[in-house]
Amino acid sequence: MPLNTGDVAPTFSLKNANPAVGGDSVSFSDAAGPNGTVVLFECNHCPYVVASVDRINAMAEHCRLHDIGFVGINANDPVVYENDSFEHMVKRAGGGMPYAYLHDASQEIASAYGAKRTPEFFLFNAQHHLVYQGRMDDSPRNPNDVSSTELADAIEAMVGGQTPTVDYTESIGCSVKWKA
What we know:
globular, two-stranded antiparallel ribbon, 180 residues, single chain, alpha+beta
């Protein structure tokens, strides 16, 4: 069942493809920052994710500077896309990914969050309540065409003690590849 604004973050503890950041497995509480947490559902093959990697990494750094935790989760079935296997996750993370990159092999966490697409962002406040869900911006494939930055706007509002003006946007990206 999908999350609604105000819902508490489902907990998890998942295998990490980027052990240089967070160790071999990472839980929600490990990833959580004192001012909030971003949980990103992503993968290796989706052109929307691939085109956004630099901006996603910059967003992770922006979050770190604001004491907001940031974690990526890949729930895609590697039978559908071999590039989404754990081994390929390790290779991608080795390219300087600045956050833990977790493997949701059972797809239970993606289901609990109601993740539909990659990339899809879930922003939780310091009390782990959902304050924003959706896209990072309105142009994941072309940074030159960005005209709205909903995730950054929600973070700025939350850090400033305000409720984000927009708490939900439809993600733009590839569908989560569910197991048959």
